[in-house]
């Protein structure tokens, strides 16, 4: 995709739908010498929400990218837009949360090593030391903050401090088996992506593979979503599924599910990093 | 598959697992000159349930197939088996229940016309006359029994009479939008297959496509299951899914879902007809 | 999708990529009071080809849609564009070609009856009379032109005459088992969509299911493509696959493949009708 | 699956189909006190080949597993069977061949670390030193034998020596980018599994992702097969696919393909290790 190769700017916009938005925004980019590499938008006909992503080359741009937000502000005011402007060359700082299971972490670290994801990982945080060797292998700082029911508030503050200190811009829960409190989520100051090991909204809560086994489903799934205060209810970014059968034990479901979890989480992170995901209400628009 | 071409016998068995079942049953078949075309079995390690399907050629069999049940009874007694014996040459009599939506009905009728399913369809029953033209086209008797909240018990009795009169051995709810009462299910005397237009257990109940749209899922599904008194909780026979995105309206989900519903229901019916499905507890074993 | 509900205009554009195309085209639409419902574009970085689809509402448009082509011509000239303008309210006239197998035809006719596809079908043409009953059921004229090796040129002229007489704008080969000659294709004057019963480029030519069986593949597929003079080499619009195994006979592959063929062909036709497909070189861009 | 938990014996059989095989073999197992955990068989109706896999518990077996082959020999003689007997508790010794790309290797090593695969990996062999760090991390001996066109015969002898020395029972080409010579394959003395980065038989040979991009396919695939002297023509064990579109560059296909290659290769290795794969002619029977 263009974003990886040439330097580009991604402009994300949300407002109520009106005539002339595309013309006005593409005119703005053209006036400053920008070449649109990719644009996509969506209007929700039930709510009249308009959501747009425009990606344009910085090459030939007659304004320093830093000054784009100020230059765009007047247009945003006219249409009452919320907007974000991202430079593709800036790597997103991702903080990883993990517990004992290492497969999602190991998968993301390998993609990171191949630079598939265009991120920096300044820290891996865990409530156990099980995954320390992965951090060591990839030379990433690893912080362990054990947690009990009683110490949860303090532990969350430690995690928050660490994330802030590392100026983390995205938190990825790579099978972090703790529920983040409403307070944590309100303080974290950046999006949090979680992987749930079921095809939501089926099998909410604990032990989804056991639940799936007991229900006798013929397909299992995994779901990556933004974490919100309503557990397992956050906006869904990506889902995928795999067939299972009567011969599969709960352990087989867990094993098959691992592959799913890795892929679904990696796709969600990639789409977030490339700023292809816009949240509105409890839903997402994902611009492929 | 062999069943379609050569005449064969299918033997279905359920009992608690013990040593020697396969040897004893295959010995029984061999002793009467039967050639096993296909055999499969499964042991649930948690419950110790043993389930088996054996299919053997009637060609060369030194006992009239009609006498097989009596001949097999002593073995069944030793192992405390429940068992069924089916002749592949005997067509299953299928009664169709349908409401206004015709796609699942039309799909099954076409498969029937190509003799994909090896069934007879003595009757199509509906609470509306919408699908009458399909019945006419395929020259199948069509019975309309309108239903209201008040007349439901009587209407169900009419449906039951009709099914009995036609000696129906399987009822297929091809998008029949009425919930069958516990009483109906206890009286019907044969299995009932239903198609639910969601990936169960997600989106139980009414308007699953609307529910899926509101939740913002990235994949929708369809589920064929045996109808039981617990609505949408019956043993699942088959499921499948298709990707959806933010551009898909509820109407698009309905349209994409139709293809799924047709395929999933047809696969479930085919497997039932070929006696590949065994129910135990609220789960199925499906021997492909 | 919006196109089905509100009347809209679809503008398709192809040219070499330059700065300012999106701004200029969206400005053009805005100047005439059009509200862009959907826009998408793609630049092939290897060839520098720019391809765009813009869909805008006719409601509020301050120019009769008929005059849009003339109004747009000057812009097209500046950018050396090829372009097409379609009104969503105009139904596309589709001519169906079919041989003995009826499943793709029956499937499209049923979708047509539900008005899933927004088409008219003025004629079904076949080299056999096998599918006459379908034509009769759906009250569509059915023309039979038998063909032999010797009479092929004359038969193709008969088919062409019929298509022209019915002012057909799209030809759909719904398992038409004749290879259209280069001459036919150069004279037909509208796109031709074919369904090939394999995952192209695997198993080109005759009996792909037999070929797939002999090769022992674990997945089979179907491919919808525009017909060109190079057999099975035309630009691919859509493909899909299904799992198969060692138990599946050639007949089972044929049966499983039927479902695939129907769905893949229907999706390709729908995308063409909605003007979501642009051809360049031997490839397509499909704007979902 | 049972094989992982209880110790079991897997018996694989190939012969021409006759009456009484299942009865005789299951009787044999029963006579020695074995409890059949799983059995499956397949008859190719075109060739009359009979292929069977029976898995039975060693618990309660009244014969030492080592003596089973001799005990079974007389039955094998009667039916002219080829047969193999494997103990599930014996780990298969797997030699890995790899070149510069590390994703399939890294994936298998991680599965190995979780003991998903029940194998030993005594050696990783490469023609480059790129993957040395993975070998080091997992503490597996790593041997580098560089190869040029001229030195290929010698290099292959070095590889063969190393494999023999390590008593390797399965060779896995985890993206080993050298074609094994007919001589190598005739000398290696154990099965060789290769992963080809396309949906065979499409895109045989070099650069399949480039070929797929140029053809404009909508789906790409990966194929795991036994290596034979006919390049990319060996018996297929497993295939899978993923959707691609016009936005995907060749690099995107490569990236998406990596996930496929890892999963398809891992599934093929697992099935081989569990002795679920039987080869006959150029096809496989895979007993799930």
Gist?
Four copies of one chain form a homotetramer. In chain A, 33% of the residues lie in helices and 30% in strands.
General description of the model:
Four copies of one chain form a homotetramer. Chain A folds into two domains: 86 residues, 2-Layer Sandwich (Alpha-Beta Plaits); 195 residues, Rossmann fold (3-Layer(aba) Sandwich). In chain A, strands 7-6-5-8-9-10-11 form a seven-stranded mixed sheet, sandwiched between helices. A four-stranded antiparallel sheet of chain A has the order 2-3-1-4, covered by helices on one side. A two-stranded antiparallel ribbon of chain A has the order 12-13. In chain A, helix 8 packs across helix 9. The mean pLDDT of chain A is 94. Chain A is 33% helix and 30% strand. By secondary structure, chain A is an alpha/beta fold.
What's the topology here?
4 copies of one chain form a homotetramer.
Chain A: H1 2-5, E1 8-16, H2 21-31, E2 35-44, E3 49-57, H3 68-79, E4 82-87, E5 92-98, H4 103-113, E6 119-126, H5 132-137, E7 142-144, H6 152-165, E8 170-173, H7 182-187, E9 192-196, H8 208-215, E10 219-226, E11 236-243, H9 250-273, E12 277-280, E13 283-286
Parallel strand pairs in A: 5-6, 5-8, 6-7, 8-9
Antiparallel strand pairs in A: 1-3, 1-4, 2-3, 9-10, 10-11, 12-13
Features:
homotetramer; 288 residues; alpha/beta; Alpha-Beta Plaits; Rossmann fold; 7-stranded mixed sheet; 4-stranded antiparallel sheet; 33% helix; 30% strand
CATH homology superfamily of the largest domain in chain A:
Formyl transferase, N-terminal domain
**Count of helical segments of chain A?**
9
- Integer count of domains of chain A: 2
Strand content of chain A: 25-35%
* Largest β sheet strand count, sense and barrel closure of chain A: 7 strands, mixed
Structural classification of chain A: alpha/beta
Give the N-to-C terminal Cα separation of chain A: 10 Å
